[in-house]
Amino acid sequence: MSNNLSPHIFTEILKEELVPAMGCTEPIALAYAGAKAREVLGEIPEKVIVEASGSIIKNVKSVIVPNTGNLKGIPAAISAGITEGNANKKLEVLSEVKNPQAIKEFLDSAEIEVKHLKSKFNFDIIITAIKGESYSKIRIANSHTNIVLIEKNDETIKNIKVKCESDEGLTDHSVLSGEKIWQYITEVDIEEIRPTIKRQIDYNTAIANEGLKGDYGASIGKVILNAYKDNVRDRAKAMAAAGSDARMNGCELPVIINSGSGNQGMTCSLPVLEYAKELNAPEDKLYRALALSNLIAIHIKSGIGRLSAYCGAVSAGAAAGAGIAYLYTEDYKTVMHTVVNALSIVSGIICDGAKASCAAKIASSVDAGILGFDMYRQGKQFVSGDGIVAKGFEANIKNIGRLGKTGMKTTDAEILNMMLDIET
Q1: Of 18, 45, 334, 392, which sits 20 to 30 A from 139 (CA to CA)?
Q2: Please, is 191 exposed, middle or buried when counting C-beta atoms within 10 Å of its C-beta (0-12, 13-18, 19+)?
Q3: What are the backbone dihedrals phi and psi of residue 90, each rounded to the nearest 5 degrees, phi first?
Q4: What is the pTM of this model?
């Protein structure tokens, strides 16, 4: 790889980002913080103070916490983590729940106070667990398992200064670019990425199939298959939507996430898988297409941040379009123009928290990714000057990052006010 950059750094990024999580990752991050707070305190608390940034509140409000008997919301997530969570399992903290009734009992009996944390970081959680004169405090910032503060009874066990909104502890994502991602996915030894990609295929396919079998949320995956004729485009949208149907509505199967999000992990993988089956693509080609799709999604999201008013399905849907374009053409220009076209179509979709309608937003984003590819192979594209479209792939990724991180800050605050029924 050029510029003395080891290709293995891209493999490490995939390993770090494509990890399993059970349930929507924001309530699971709260459950993880709760489990850690109980572990540090050494006993079940009688009072819990939860301070959460607006984006956390938004993403936890309406989604079912797995293994809780269909409970929703911040108090439910905290109660589950404190009573039944295993902090060692991180984003699978609730995978070993043995007594769901204990969660309900704690929720009913403990004092749980939730405060809106006015933080400069979109992702910020502080949990204070209190029993008698003893307390423990846990802070997670910027990413779902990034504990930056551990405190017990005025003793500071861990304290990392949070300098900026970035993913501390992860491989530097600034190394990513369209050109370098392309070089990596065309040259990487498939055996180097096989365990990571194979796990994503297995996990995400399983939950999508469950979404099509069960009755979850608005059943968007089923609606798509029932409403339209059987074709690969609609199957691709339906599979990704069905995975979200299940995940947003209490399914206890884990998913492999991307950029901290299970919905994004499913969106950038399941459509590519469906097209690979349609084309009878060889395994080698499928794995390269999935590595491409995942890395493009990570690259786009790195500029936006983990949480934003910008719907993460949009970036993942564009990335799925890139993977599909690769399966058909193995052409660099086609792949990059597909992403730019797709982002031009649906970049106005807002994130108003995790809930059933995420599945429909996923379907729309995947459709945009496929349309972006169809446009370019028919000689059509959006060009610099068309709205926020800029000249060159990286300039467009930069614009999307600016839109999601800076441009939509006020939008994010107003969305939260609407969700909490606060007049402004």
Answers
A1: 18
A2: exposed
A3: 50, -115
A4: 0.92
